[in-house]
Design a protein that fits this description.
Elements lengths: L1 H5 L11 H7 L8 E6 L6 E2 L6 E2 L5 E5 L1 E2 L5 E7 L5 E8 L14 E3 L5 E5 L9 E8 L2 E9 L17 E2 L5 E4 L2 E8 L2 E9 L17 E2 L5 E5 L9 E7 L5 E8 L7 E2 L7 E2 L5 E5 L1 E2 L6 E7 L5 E8 L13 E3 L5 E5 L10 E7 L5 E8 L13 E2 L5 E4 L10 E5 L2
Antiparallel strand pairs: 1-32, 2-5, 3-4, 4-6, 6-7, 8-9, 9-10, 10-11, 12-13, 13-14, 14-15, 16-17, 17-18, 18-19, 20-23, 21-22, 22-24, 24-25, 26-27, 27-28, 28-29, 30-31, 31-32
Length: 408
């Protein structure tokens, strides 16, 4: 089993398999936690690398990178009258699929109910695609919008691994070892590279952007790189939309700037609060070298100041956050840490509450124990009732990961 192979973390092996895990790992579950669907059963998807999205009817959409034919699926979960959730596979990727394979970044939703995502591999040139899924009276139709490496020397990028973001005019933005824009037109979709990061070691502008982007109200893009920067351990960057239509990159923070700074941000997207502060995570670094949650605040002189608001450590609080954080209307932050928590080191869901003195209080909302999911690695999503939805990479009754909900 997949869970069997990866449970050895932090010097501990919790169990010899999923069923053994249930008997030897102490049960720890908040009463407001529920598994909506467990993946990994025959023919189903598995291995959820990305989070989910919600439509205005409460349906849940997402993507898996395994299962089905072995190259990923796009799925929809619908709540039934009895309170249970039913899964429907909207598309199953196949080997050498011209529409792409392995949708690591999941899917996003537009106002018309269309889904958009990126295949990390596959496509005409086998290095990734951008696709659209459109609902219709007879089911869902997948449309290929773009195949990467369509330009000479693959100057348009390839192997996109992060979620996309959609602006108000219908343009898509993402990362494919660069920052790109995909724009609709009468003759189809056109890709434009907005910024190319340096691919050499110690590139001060950043290298290897693997997280999704976010947009501000002016149409500027923000993201992270896992490498590069002044200290070659990652950056937070902004790509600004200039008045003449061009785009200009600026590094807002180079990680490793002081001894207890975080390093190597993961694949989780940043988030803004109502005051324009940025929040994110690093997978390692910090006071205990187990990862951090950080904030970036714009200063009067225009530069951005970083503050470490939480340093993770080994233990029941969880550590090594690969996902970013989301924020509620009260300014509380929510996220997942990929390991730690219960005895099986299967990860946690956590909450950070701001205090009047500027400090933050950290608490664990849920510790995964294996059967309820294991190793969360994607951003959470909040609905308008304050419910949290998320995914795990492995665990669950089918050992292929779960979609879960935490209610307040």
């Amino acid at each position: 089993m997949r869970l069997k192979r990866v449970l050895a973390t932090g010097g501990k092996l919790c169990a010899l398999g999923l069923f053994a895990l249930l008997s030897v790992c102490p049960s720890w579950s908040a009463p407001n936690y529920a598994v909506l669907h467990a993946f990994g059963n025959p023919g189903d998807g598995s291995e959820l690398q990305a989070g989910v999205v919600l439509d205005n009817k409460g349906h849940v959409y997402g993507a898996s990178t395994g299962g089905g034919y072995g190259y990923g699926t796009v799925f929809k979960l619908t709540r039934q009258p009895d309170g249970q959730w039913k899964e429907k596979k909207l598309y199953e990727f196949r080997r050498d699929d011209p529409n792409g394979t392995y949708p690591y970044g999941g899917v996003i939703l537009d106002g018309a109910g269309n889904l958009y995502g990126a295949g990390t591999l596959g496509g005409v040139n086998h290095v990734g695609t951008i696709f659209q899924l459109t609902p219709g009276p007879t089911g869902w139709t997948l449309n290929l919008l773009y195949s990467f490496c369509s330009q000479p020397d693959c100057s348009d990028g390839g192997a996109p691994q992060a979620s996309l973001v959609l602006d108000s005019t219908g343009n898509l933005y993402g990362t494919a070892f660069n920052v790109f824009e995909l724009s609709p037109g009468p003759d189809g979709w056109t890709e434009a590279v907005l910024y190319n990061f340096c691919s050499e070691p110690n590139c001060t502008d950043g290298a290897t952007p693997r997280a999704g982007l976010i947009l501000d109200t002016k149409g500027n893009l923000y993201g992270t790189t896992q490498g590069g920067g002044t200290y070659d351990v990652g950056t937070v960057f902004k790509v600004r939309h200039m008045p003449d239509g061009t785009w200009k990159e600026r590094v807002l923070h180079s990680f490793g700037s002081f001894p207890k700074d975080g390093v190597n941000p993961g694949r989780g997207a940043l988030t803004f609060d109502s005051a324009g502060h940025l929040y994110g995570t690093t997978s390692i670094g910090g006071a205990n070298y187990r990862g951090t949650v950080f904030s970036l605040t714009r200063q009067p002189d225009g530069h951005w100041k970083e503050t470490i608001i939480h340093s993770f450590k080994v233990g029941k609080g969880g550590n090594a956050p690969g996902a970013g954080v989301v924020i509620d209307t009260a300014g509380n932050l929510y996220g997942t840490a990929g390991v730690g928590g219960s005895d099986c080191d299967c990860g946690v869901v956590y909450k950070l509450v701001p205090n009047p003195d500027g400090t933050w209080t950290y608490s664990v909302l849920h510790r995964f124990t294996g059967y309820d999911g294991a190793f969360p690695s994607a951003n959470l999503v909040l609905d308008d009732q304050g419910n949290l939805y998320g995914t795990t990479l492995f665990g669950g009754s089918g050992d292929g990961g779960v979609v879960f909900q935490i209610t307040p």
